[in-house]
Amino acid sequence: MRYINKKLTIEKISLQKIAKKYGTPFYSYSYSKLKDNINNFKKNFKSFSPLICFAVKSNTNVNIIREIKKFGLGADVVSIGELMMALKAGINPNKIVFSGVGKTSNEISFAIDKNILLINAESLSEIKEINKVAKSKNKKIRVGVRLNPNTDAKTLSQISTGKKENKFGVNKNTFNEIIKYSKNSKNIDLKCLSVHIGSQILDHKPYEKMLEAVSQILNKVRYKFEFIDLGGGMGISYSDKNKKLNYKKYNSAILKFLKRHKVKIIFEPGRSIIGDTGTLVSKVIYIKDSGRKKFIILDAAMNDLMRPALYGAIHRTLPVTKSNIRSKKPYEFVGPICESTDKFITLKKFQVLKEKDLVAICDVGAYGMSLSSNYNLRTKPIELLIKESKVKVIRKRQKHKDLI
Ligand SMILES: *Cc1c(COP(=O)(O)O)cnc(C)c1O
């Protein structure tokens, strides 16, 4: 995305032009960015060609998943709904892993019927449930166990998942119990150890620690796993100040690990594949002067993009048409929803905006639309895929008649 003649442009089309045709708010995704992200991800780890399973929860649009599938990626799903969506997008079941702490027997049964690659269990009770369902179908099921390696991912506490106080995965003792249980079961084929320590990780050291913890456990248990699923969590640059994850060092740590353990690696990236491809474009409805600051009231709200309200996340926010005049007062960008947390960002010295101007909220491809809701009975925005100067509607704007 860049300014061409002062107009913010995605690939070869200006956001203003798109807004004129499709209205606001809208989500747009850049195809070329998506392609680059996938190719770069593959390149970073090409020496051991991992199975890359896109974390569907980061973006559940069937057309996005379809595009990702064309690059040979599989899917990581966390509910029966996401599993159905991945299958609908044409992802090969043999490239689908099913994660999550609370899979119901209905979900397990569906996953077994679809013959997916792995069900990654997160408790002894779940392993027993999988065993029960598999037995009733007279099948042997490939499963993984998610280990909680007690590793601090050094990310926001709300998106940290690999510490012992988090609900995810099992501790060493339970892990050993599960191995024992699986050895004695005719219906469980324990094939994978999985870990996922959190999201938006920008420091490679937590990954090194996680690999070290996994390596030690593997040495102790002396059980031969076919797969090690390292999860996702690779962070992206939400602001110019963010440092970048050092993929070279992460790759080296994995290569070192692979010298000691002959396994196939699985990744489950979400954000790093789709995050920086997406932009939410919104129109200024009103501007309200409150003395010290001005409220820029947008037609997008926390129901469209919840990350700021949910995690205090910060998204770069840009004018769609650039000028050089700066505002003297800080601007607080808010939505129309009846909640004080319905606020995107406060910026000083933003360019002067007027009512009906457009703003772009950047890097919203991951956990943007997928976290959206109908709160305040607001309809969900339209989603568009941009390829050069072509715009494809990949999800229609919701209508009130869909809701009422
Ligand atoms: C959310 C999640 C991911 C994806 O995380 P990102 O930070 O988007 O890469 C991968 N695996 C599991 C089990 C998850 O819950």
Layout: helices, strands, pairs:
Elements: E1 2-4, E2 7-10, E3 13-14, H1 15-22, E4 26-30, H2 31-44, E5 51-55, H3 62-69, E6 74-77, H4 80-88, E7 96-98, H5 105-113, E8 118-121, H6 124-136, E9 141-146, H7 172-183, E10 188-194, H8 205-221, E11 227-229, H9 247-260, E12 264-267, H10 271-274, E13 278-289, E14 294-298, H11 307-311, E15 317-319, E16 331-334, E17 343-347, E18 358-362, E19 382-387, E20 390-395, H12 400-403
Parallel strand pairs: 4-19, 5-6, 5-12, 6-7, 7-8, 8-9, 9-10, 10-11, 11-12, 14-16
Antiparallel strand pairs: 1-2, 2-3, 4-13, 13-14, 13-18, 15-18, 16-17, 19-20
Instruction: Point out poorly predicted stretches.
Output: none
CATH topology of the largest domain: the name is: TIM Barrel
> Helical proportion?
25-40%
Q: What's the end-to-end separation, in Å?
A: 37 Å
* DSSP helical segment count: 12
Domain count: the total is: 2
How many distinct beta strands? 20
Q: Which ions, cofactors or small ligands are bound in this entry?
A: pyridoxal-5'-phosphate
Shape: elongated
Question: Can you put this structure into words, describing what you see?
Answer:
The chain has twelve helices and 20 strands. With 404 residues, the chain is α/β, with parallel strands linked by helices. The chain folds into two domains: 2-29 and 275-403, Lyase, Ornithine Decarboxylase, Chain A, domain 1 (Beta Barrel), CATH 2.40.37.10; 31-272, TIM Barrel. The strands form three sheets. Strands 4, 13, 14, 15, 16, 17, 18, 19 and 20 form a nine-stranded mixed β-sheet that branches. Strand 7, helix 5 (105-113) and strand 8 form a beta-alpha-beta unit. Helix 5 packs across helix 6 and helix 8 runs parallel beside helix 9. Bound molecules: pyridoxal-5'-phosphate (PLP). Pyridoxal-5'-phosphate binds at residues 55, 57-58, 76, 78, 99, 196, 199, 231-234, 268-272, 366.
